[in-house]
Design brief:
Radius of gyration: 21 Å
Number of helices: 5
Order of helices and strands: HHHHH
Shape: elongated
């Protein structure tokens, strides 16, 4: 694996940890002493992190399909109105779309890490029902 790919996985996992710890601390996990409640809070924290990461990955997937291209092009046109030089980088939307065809973002790392967090949440949910 390339170093940048590993870095993407590590950073998304750390973001997931931050989200999980935030949700768990908001629910009061550090002051809880009952194992059943701790399992419920762990399940909630990991589930929220998994859903957030997976949804961001799905938004990138939709963006790769070109759903947000018209919005991005209109923002470029809007902000070009405030520039001194009136030269446009793209003549029309078709030219913009053709220029953007080759730029696709990878999203597998977000989906994989998100699904791992959802699997952890399922594990703690099973433990919650077993206790």
């Amino acid at each position: 694996m390339k170093r940048s790919t590993v870095l993407q996985y590590v950073i998304s996992a750390l973001v997931g940890v931050c989200i999980s710890v935030g949700v768990m601390s908001a629910r009061g996990i550090f002051s809880e002493d009952r194992p059943v409640q701790i399992m419920a809070m762990l399940s909630d924290g990991f589930f929220v992190a998994g859903i957030v990461l997976s949804c961001v990955g799905l938004i990138i997937f939709v963006g790769n399909g070109g759903v947000f291209d018209m919005l991005a092009y209109s923002m470029i046109l809007f902000f070009s109105l405030f520039r001194k030089n009136l030269e446009r980088k793209y003549k029309d939307f078709y030219e913009y779309r053709e220029a953007k065809k080759g730029t696709k973002r990878s999203l597998a790392f977000l989906l994989i890490v998100g699904l791992c967090y959802i699997a952890l949440a399922a594990l703690f949910l099973i433990l919650y029902y077993m206790i």
